Every structure is written in C-alpha cells, then in structure tokens.
Amino acid sequence: MTTPVLTPEPGWVPAEPFPSPEGTFLAENHHVRLAYFRKPGEPALYAKAWFGSKTAGPPGRVHGGAMAATLDEAMGAAAWIDGHKCLAVSITINFLAMLPLETETTVEARVDRVEGRKIHLRSAIKDPSGRVVAEGSGLFIVLRDDQLRAIERP
C-alpha cells in the first residue's frame, strides 16, 4: 500500500508548528502520517492524520497509544504555533470509539487557557464522518530560557 497524501479541507493553509524541518517521530510511512493546517482567523490548529498498518492494536483497529501520541503532539503543536515553547506535564486521553486502520482522520487542537507558564490545551480526533473517536486535554509548561537553550543546542 502506498502512503496517502493528506489533503486539507477547503480554506485550510499548511502550518509548520515546530522548528524542526524533519517533523516528528509520527511521520513514518506505515505508522502515522500527520500534516498540520490552520484556518485563517481561527485559533485552532488542524491536522489530517492517517493511521497505517504499524499502528495496529486490536485486530484491524488503531492502537490507543498511536491515537494518544497524535493528540499529545497536536496539543504541543497548537501551543508552539501560538508562541508557547512548552512541554507536556500531564495529558489525559479519552477513547470514545475504535478506529479502523488506514483511516484518514481530522485532528483539532487548541489552547484552552493560559495561566502564567501553564498552558492548558484540548484536542480531538474525528473519523471521516466527523464523529469524535478520541479526545485529549493536557497541561503543558512553558520552558524557561535556560531550558530552551539547552534543547536548541545540536
């Protein structure tokens, strides 16, 4: 099977939330394919995600860990693209339905609120019909300047 090209919804424009041009560990051929987008004038970050054969959990279905990793990354991406250079402290994932393998989904993530260095985020994965199959919330902490410098070094 060839890896699909992830197509944005009408009005979406490509977005690059992270400084690394290589993307993240999720961008593997038969694992998860993830492409980010924004809608002009909207605060949310959107993505198209495809879950390949290497994300199998229950027979023919996506493993919850693959969905959790996708929601975690999407929340981090939403924070970073909004200028909050942060890392996850705690995430909570709720699985609402099983997702068949090789399904292209829509992911939404947004900053819910900011309290000093604490960034609260929400995210969801929707199947092709628009039904939410997993949702996440997370607490992320903005990195201090010394922490940010330490991770920016090669």
Protein described:
- The chain is of the alpha+beta class and 154 residues long.
- The protein has a single domain (13-152), classed as Hotdog Thioesterase (Thiol Ester Dehydrase, Chain A, Roll), CATH 3.10.129.
- Helices cover 17% and strands 38% of the residues.
- The protein has two helices and seven strands.
- Strands 1-2-3-5-6-7-4 form a seven-stranded antiparallel sheet, with helices on one face.
- Strand 6 (118-126) and strand 7 form a beta hairpin.
- The longest helix is centred in the middle third of the chain and has 18 residues, at 64-81.
- It is globular and about 45 Å long.
- The relative contact order is 0.18.
- The mean pLDDT is 88.
Radius of gyration: 15 Å
Average pLDDT score? 88
Which fold does the CATH topology refer to?
A: Thiol Ester Dehydrase, Chain A
Strand order, sheet with most strands: 1-2-3-5-6-7-4
The domain count comes to 1
Give the biggest beta sheet. 7 strands, antiparallel
- Helicity level: 10-25%
Assigned CATH superfamily? Hotdog Thioesterase
Give the terminus-to-terminus CA distance: 36 Å
CATH class: Alpha Beta
Proportion of β residues? 35-45%
Task: State the order of secondary-structure elements, H for helix, E for strand.
Answer: EEEHEEEEH
Number of helices: 2
Low-confidence stretches: none
Q: Give the strand tally.
A: 7
| Class computed from helices, strands and strand pairing | alpha+beta
CATH architecture annotation:
Roll
Shape summary: globular
Top keywords for this entry?
17% helix, single chain, 38% strand, Thiol Ester Dehydrase, Chain A, alpha+beta
